[in-house]
């Protein structure tokens, strides 16, 4: 009996009328935890009952505490017949199980019914007394903190970042257990909600155990997902990054919080003092060239690498003994881990040394009934396989680790596509475990590459590159090699030097597929995948060049499978990295030189493309500083040719045949310009309308080039389901429809949010689903943040020599960092956590029963593609065109803190890990909620839109209520992980499942913080709004 | 599984390219577009609202498309429809958890929702609100809702309305006037009353409730403020002595005339009409006990006081001076014991007349 859960039911309000005769309700409440149930008295004839119950006490195991949700059911007492349920509240008590989070849950919760939605509210107080010492717990992992945030949470410092943790649990889906009987919607939905809640709890507890085994105390970047596999079952899986976190004891010791996360970064103690510094483990000039566009493609779909011998070992061969030693140490630190993966997307300064490029892997599986829920080996093995592939891709890029790692699935009937992706990277081993290599190396490493560009320097061997790429000397430090384009899945590093602003770039693609069953279906899907990857990649590359940019961050490629088509949607944030060369333009060349009108048409198109590039450069303020060519001094001859080529490109496009520089194989990007399809492709490049004036958008946490945020934010979810034209659909018409759908949705968002201008849509997250034939569902969640335009204007007018800017902070500020906080950055515990994990995980054996098929290599793909060459080509060239110096200087100004007379119980929600103009003072626990809503009166509820609109609003309301009850005033890193919508208009029915998560926090406005006296180190500042009365 | 219960049927759908079946936008803070709210309140359909927004030039201003405008309008309309239930009981809007709306926006929603067209209100004044005669009008529904909510309540009507519906004070007073007129069923529709606006009647109602209602004397009054207290109306009969007793009437006249001599421009007309005016002023009150006569209150005031004065070219100042003296004089009448009642009665009558005395 290691814990006592205490629950008090205070009151209800706005209950529905349950007795039509009296227009009143005789309500009572059942409080259930595990197998124990308590009841309150019936409060007769009231819609606002005051139960004011005693404390109901549950004496339970801590394991149970972690797994079980507290279930509160409000009922209407009926003397003559069965009591009618009004609705339920599920409360996850996990936040009460660790000391630094919430101590009490108290407040008004919406009473939720899966058929009727929210029906009134109930006031509940919940407390937990933990009796025992945590050490005694074997099966529980009470005390391990969970964060959805994919960076080190603001009021903590990372002592050690241990690495990847994963777990999955499977079960029968209760929805299918009614199949031969009559399905009672409410019972089925509630059984599902309860089961998923239980499974989530169990999963979290198991992950927690793994973390404890690794001697960590927290999971950061925790991502939990459900796979509704239909009749084969229900899978709940989660990944995260185990860390040892230290609470920063004195929050008020810091400077008042900042507008951008970057400034928070400097508060992090993770920057080691220079004496410890090995900022870069790889400073050898040999570790050059990083992922060009091909990096991405290369790794995506190649099961058998051509350059398998590459990777860490070979890369060191020219680095001299010192570098080899360093490399080996890093390697050993990581190779102890089964999977050196990190779900983080933002890192402590110095953590990320080099970035190789995007690595991803997909596999197509046939689902099979899960026979024994206690042994989820099959699914485990599937994921292990994919992860292994990712690991080997990373190795091929000369990287030991994968950062910004994520996993996803797409299921249609019995076919499932498993996807994983991340960014191959070289990390500083300092953070990964105790510093074995300290001392002997650090002095010499100090000469390491400058932080503003170091991550761009290639980690692989220039002379033995895993793929054809074009390398130049870094445009920033001019010492090391960089690729011409860089794709990553992570956020823009804080220290990165960027030019101008960033923008959201999307590649969209549809591919028709024959309807087929089982293996035939899986095969046809696997055959299509490489083409899709390739085309998505080509689109991204072209759109990036069209914007005059050279790097993508936050890249997320989603492939969705439907019955008769596959859809691909890639989103990323394009930026111009100062370290990388200026991207070349896009060239179209025709191959029927004698046809005059055709030539004219081609040159017209070319002009349009050139104009677009010029316009975009202006729009995104991309004016890189001039670099004298001698300084670059590249040993690679191409740049000069390219520059010559570019100068003449607008006049003639014939001569470029020799210089297709975009890919190693020059035929790779050939498009059939005379055929309408190819023409469409070129046109579609130009259809992306830039956001209206005053708007910017990105899918990363911070918008490169904007940092004067105001506290005004608006988080939103938009969902659209559209029917694609069904008369003889072709890939082209589908593409166009899909493209229009996305563009119109974005337009709609800009219009809706026009009152927030000047504003930036951050963390724009699109998810695509194909619920049935020709129906496409797109869900977008993002946050709009208003920025201070006046300051921006002011700064841009001011003459300044600085033409380049840091992503959001600058060097001086970084140096103000309070070093005393990291006096002991190294853990002294000698242990090797990774080994334990390895042993633990090594049990995953056995060959998957399902058919498995993977993508072909990109080289095969290009060969295929090249066979279809006829005429015309799109070429990508690099330009050294002289650009005028950037007019706009670096913007240091902070926004004026707006006066906040915040009202009671306002709860902010944001997909970002921070709130502009505010400081997060406490993390209260993870919010992970799953709801089902169903209706049998769809028309009466306003049709599909009315139904879903109400449901999403209800989900928001329930999230806010839980956060407020925890004592919080915001949820950060909010994400809607799933939104499964099904309708049957003939039966007037619809059903929707939504899964959301985030971190409940208390924040204090920067303006208020400045007025506060210095707080005692123990007391966290109170929330600005006290939500719900805390009764004791 | 849910999806298994019914195979997706073949729905009749527009074959055109791509139709958006489902299209929603939900913000953590509920977006309220004032223009669309007004269009919704005015009862326009989505199509009409879109057409009006187009005419407003939003397309050119924002460089967007008709489809975007339609989608936006539908979103707002759905939001308003969901909010309407809460707007019927505004305090619930403040407590509900479903929509996060900043307080000033909540106030705006309520205020606009309960705002009404004075021309319409003027037309409905004094008519029965319990009957659903004008179903199509939301404003009429609001009148009925407010009427029903405060019908049985004790205490000052306007304050009750303000508390129950969170309306700004002036709007609450207007609603109080509507409820008051509906209760008392005063006739306002006669031709000779057409020159009076809603605001005139509302001001009169306010004066009458302020001076005559139970609440005006004792806050814990037994009767709702919307009804004039029966005992008071009964007492008014006592005042008839001022016109039925010839001596009192003559003395009253001479007191008033001597006080006003040389002070008003219409002295001669006053002297000639005093008795008729006084009879009218006293009898209006005396008739208030009979429901049928109550109806004629304003008709009588206009026909017997305002019109004669107007034809004699009294200025508003003349009327004010006269009414002041007329009210004060009985204090000096020997044997008149109802001065307090008289002053209470005349305070409202004076306020009404002065408000109504215009073209």
Our estimate of the beta-strand percent of chain B is: under 5%
Largest sheet of chain A: 5 strands, mixed
| pLDDT averaged over residues of chain A | 73
Gyration radius of chain B, to the nearest Å? 28 Å
Strand content of chain A: 25-35%
Structural class of chain A: alpha+beta
What would you say this structure looks like, in words?
The complex is a heterodimer of chains A (about 1050) and B (about 350). With about 1050 residues, chain A is α+β, with helices and mostly antiparallel strands. Chain A has 20 helices and 35 strands. In chain A, a hairpin with a 5-residue loop joins strand 11 and strand 12 (about 235-245). The longest helix of chain A has 29 residues, at about 185-215. The two termini of chain A are about 25 Å apart. Mean pLDDT of chain A is about 75; it is low at about 250-325, about 435-445, about 630-675, about 790-805, about 805-905 and about 1015-1030. By secondary structure, chain B is mainly alpha-helical. In chain B, helix 20 (about 315-330) packs antiparallel against helix 21 (about 340-355). The longest helix of chain B has 22 residues, at about 65-85. Chain B is elongated, with a radius of gyration of 28 Å. Chains A and B meet through strand 26, helix 14, strand 32, helix 19 and strand 34 of A and helix 1, strand 1 and helix 5 of B.
Summary keywords:
heterodimer, A: 1032 residues, alpha+beta, 4-stranded antiparallel sheet, 20 helices, 35 strands, 30% strand, B: 359 residues, mainly alpha, elongated, disordered N terminus
In short:
The complex is a heterodimer of chains A (1032) and B (359). By secondary structure, chain A is α+β, with helices and mostly antiparallel strands.
Helix-strand blueprint:
The complex is a heterodimer of chains A (1032) and B (359).
Chain A lengths: L2 E11 L13 E7 L2 E4 L16 E5 L1 H6 L2 E7 L7 E8 L13 E9 L3 E14 L14 E2 L9 E16 L13 H29 L4 E11 L5 E14 L13 H7 L19 E2 L4 H9 L10 H4 L4 H16 L16 E15 L10 H20 L4 E12 L2 E13 L14 H4 L14 E2 L9 E3 L7 E3 L2 E2 L9 E16 L5 H29 L4 E11 L3 E13 L8 E4 L6 H24 L9 H4 L5 H10 L28 H12 L7 E3 L11 E15 L7 H22 L6 E14 L2 E13 L1 H9 L7 E2 L4 H5 L17 H9 L10 E2 L4 H9 L6 E4 L31 E2 L8 E18 L7 H23 L4 E15 L4 E17 H6 L21
Parallel strand pairs in A: 9-11, 20-22, 25-27, 32-34
Antiparallel strand pairs in A: 1-4, 1-8, 2-3, 2-5, 5-6, 7-8, 10-12, 11-12, 13-17, 14-16, 14-30, 15-16, 18-19, 21-23, 21-29, 22-23, 24-31, 26-28, 27-28, 33-35, 34-35
Chain B lengths: L1 H4 L13 E9 L6 H8 L4 H10 L2 H5 L3 H22 L2 H6 L7 H12 L3 H7 L13 H13 L6 H9 L3 H16 L13 H15 L1 H4 L12 H7 L4 H4 L1 H15 L6 H20 L4 H4 L2 H15 L4 H13 L10 H18 L3
Helix pairs in contact in B: 2-3, 3-5, 9-11, 10-11, 11-12, 12-21, 16-17, 16-20, 17-19, 20-21
